[in-house]
User: What shape does this take?
Amino acid sequence: MTRFIFITGGVISSIGKGLASAALASLLQTRGFKVRLRKLDPYLNVDPGTMSPYQHGEVYVTDDGAETDLDLGHYERFTGIASRHSDNITTGRIYSKVIARERKGEYLGDTVQVIPHVTDAIKEFILSDIIDEDFVICEIGGTVGDIESLPFLEAIRQLGNELGHECTMFIHLTLLPYISSAGELKTKPTQHSVKELLSVGIQPDLLLCRSDRNLSEKERHKISLFCNVREEAVITGPDVDIIYKAPVSYHEQGFDDQVCKHFNLFNAPPAVLTSWNKIIERIQAPEGEVTIAIVGKYIKLLDSYKSLSEALQHGGIANNVKVRMNWIDSKIFENKESICGLENVHGILVPGGFGERGISGKIEAIKFAREHFIPYFGICFGMQMAVIEVARNLAGLINANSTEFGPCIEPVVGLITEWVCKNKLVCRTKESDLGGTMRLGAYNCKLLPKTKVAEIYGKEIISERHRHRYEVNICYRKHLEQAGIIFSGMSPDDTLPEIIELKNHPWFIGVQFHPELKSKPFDPHPLFASFIQATILKSRLI
Ligand code: GLN
Assistant: This one.
């Protein structure tokens, strides 16, 4: 029997619903249940793929090639379960589906309306693609009271009735601000937010109250009374300094016990927190520290690099060191003198990115890493920029560039117009739509034996997730090889360079994919573990 848990948020946005959902899923998993996590996003975009990172943060890509919300990254990191295309839906996708059906005449003359047609499409999505999961946790994006989220709330209300209380649970996350002049936590915003939910017919079964301190008995009693929620189901969600403490902290507050109680699962095995405790211990007691410069473009909103910062931390966990991240706007290095600041870092990383702004700064930082033997990790755009740097400065191709920035004389990086996906040829042109048309999702890559990456992965074939439109131009292979580049990873048909490394450098690797998307705290990605290991060696030399 599959049970559905719906998680809504009130009072403010960014209250931590994604983290709470992921932590609950992990706790239920350790109690022996099979879980699946889903995100319902009320915005009108079909997916976040075309949104600016400043609007939305990172776009998380799944194995099956969906561009999704960054919360799906939390879900995967906390549960180890690979998310699928069917785990993230937006209003845009729901409406596209409803309108396509209407055009086909599938509504048989009905007037198409939000209720029941849009809400039916939402319910269909929530119930789809479920195999034998014990729990499906559905996080509803946005804040209760937003106009956009109303059809989603109506759909989950209906499901609550249709599936019954024994199969559904409504959890509401709220904020309890501490007002120092009054010396108390204020419950009024929570009361209002629950009233808002009640006005659409949803009575929460559990309240997860985010606050910077534990709720007193008195406060829990008051919330219970005014919000009509059992007192023991009013749970404190204390702030945590390390996100991986969330499962342990929520467990201590009785979160998973109350969920099991709601579903009458009185004989459920207890939660096992050993692996989370080990991770926390490692993060809290590192044996050293390394500093990495991350030279990017979207550094004013670090959510744009969520999986990257987590993966670097996982690399630290694998090596028992703290990873200090220096986020640097690449524009700074356009003035070559300021490059000096990089002398004391132990590693340099250029992450994924789009567009011309700031590229010369990235290229300068890469040159610095190459010339000063500082470990360099180039991810997607960071690999493309590394190839351009080597082409310009070592291969004598002074006009080397990417066609992403317009027509150029030496297109060392160019638009990919054809590639093979699941044995089928995919074609693109410059005129193709921007949304959903990149090379997306997991692709196999062959590793060249006896290279650094072959040693790091310990395999011949790997699978990694992609999200890019441009690619290193294989026509320049000879020039680049003569300049010291090794094409150590290629697509199985040998047409697309997937990984490059540099000869005579302690650690200089560029990858066309996004390894950070697959790293987990309990299973750090081998490239990140190896990069951090190289930075430790560098730190001993400084
Ligand atoms: N802008 C580059 C491309 O589309 C790199 C993309 C990325 O870094 N994800 O190929």
